[in-house]
Each structure stands twice: as structure tokens, then as C-alpha cells.
Specification:
single chain; Thiol Ester Dehydrase, Chain A; 7-stranded antiparallel beta sheet; 7 strands; lipid biosynthesis; lipid a biosynthesis; lyase
Amino acid sequence: MSDTLLRADIQLIQRILPHRYPFLLVDRVEEIDGTQTALGIKNVTMNEPHFQGHFPGMPIMPGVTIVEAMAQTAAVMVGTTLDMADKEMKVYFMAIDKCKFRRKVIPGDQLQMRLTTLRGKPGGKVWKFGGVATVDGEMAAEAEFSAMMDLPA
């Protein structure tokens, strides 16, 4: 781990990611250690639109949105480290592997997403990440995923 860890607040996240409500799924990213590791935070609230139908009377965050939140955390990690703010970086899923869900994520939870780069380097287009999402220290989901970073020249 480097001596100086970076952070990204919601303002910087919005300068890196093109996502907006209702699909911006990370509130801040802490402990950014270059392009190697980062910790994303998602505060889960009842006013998110997917809770109206997933499921009425028993709101549960959809698993695909948990994986998307992990992917957004990875993109912010890379985008922050490579100074991609305001440069219209696009990131596209290529694969999701070894994905498992272990507990429900519900309104009021704080989802913490620990991301690690498994493959990829500055200047490269294809990256692979491993992610573990937890709530109160209990694993909610884990996955490996690959993405193509469409980085502006």
C-alpha cells in the first residue's frame, strides 16, 4: 500500500463516471491505492426506484445492482488514479465470473465494496477486478469481472 491513499467524494465520482440517478450506485470511494485496491461506499436508501418492485413489502437490493456498484467503484479507482475527471471515460462490462450472493441488502444498510485489480495497467483497455461487498462485516456478494476502459486519448 502506498503512503498516500486517494479518496473520491460524490462530486469527483460524477466527474469520472457518466452514470446519474437512478443508476449512480456509489456514494464515495476511499482508500484508493493507485490502480490496485479501493473501498467503495453505497448507502442504501428506501427512495431508490428498484425497491418499488423488488419486492413490494420486502425491499431487497437486486444482486445485479450490487455487482454494478462494485464495477462503478473499480471505475472510480482507475479514473481517480489516472486523472480521468472531466474526460468522458466510458467503461463496459465484458464478463462477470464467480458471482455469489450471501445475504440480503436492504434499505438502511451501508454496502462496503472492497475492490482489487487482478489484471490491467495504465494505458491498457481490458481490466479484471475482484470485488467483495459487505454489510456490517458480513459478506453480501462477491464477484470477479472484466471491463473495457474506453479511455480518451
